[in-house]
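Subject: 3-hydroxyisobutyrate dehydrogenase-like beta-hydroxyacid dehydrogenase structure
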Amino acid sequence: MENNITLIGLGAMGSVLGELLVKNRITLTVWNRTREKANTLISLGANYVPDIRTAIADSPVILLCVVNYEASREILSGLDLTGKTIIQLSSGTPADAREMQNDILARGAAYLDGVILATPPQMGQPSTPIFFSGDEQVFREQESTLKILAGHLAYMGPAVGAAAAWDLAILSTMFGMQFGFLHGARIMEAEGISVGALGNVTSTLSPVLAEMVQEVGQDIENSRFDQPLSSLEICAYCFELLERHATEGGITAPFPAFGLEQLNLGRAAGFGKERLSAMIKIMR
């Protein structure tokens, strides 16, 4: 367990990470462009250093939690990183992670890439997930310290872009669901039904919805698109109903319009009698 860490970035997430580390007796150096954001951590015992070179020199492990990889590269530009361990917890793409790793390794430091799949208030809980990828030895060496930040740590493999890929895939799934829910909320409003009730009922259905997503993943993994319980054609008809109701209810319909446009591509390709998962063949 590493007891001496420098934390770079004190936004909403970085500040929470800093509090967790200090409260768990980690010797913490912090750096941020504006000192005001460090005041709470200073009061808890963290050491604020205004000079980035000194902040990097203070600790063997550097934890980055800034807006993106570009900001990380800008902050670390020209600094001596020899012998350091750099742990990235900023947002980006797999290509960002690969570029960052190449740069860090060339400068004589070890590198681990990570993504936080939670909001600041959820940090420090046993179920909070952080995914990591890249150097497994670095992950194992820092695992006990990182568990202070989140109880559910997952090592996603040696390909350094894997964690970012997982993050983007889960974000795509999450936002797809959210936009579907937003359209559902407009349906409820148009019909004078409680939107809050829709949220509550959807929550109770989450195990069923999760099984459906899991089945689609297995279909794609095994190229199993025939013998559907609900064909692509039936799914397209459901989107036609959504579009028709939008017209009847005076609702703007970008969500069903997009879905139907995609499903019509599947129909045109001859996949109407296959499973919805057959749409992956259109998207490849």
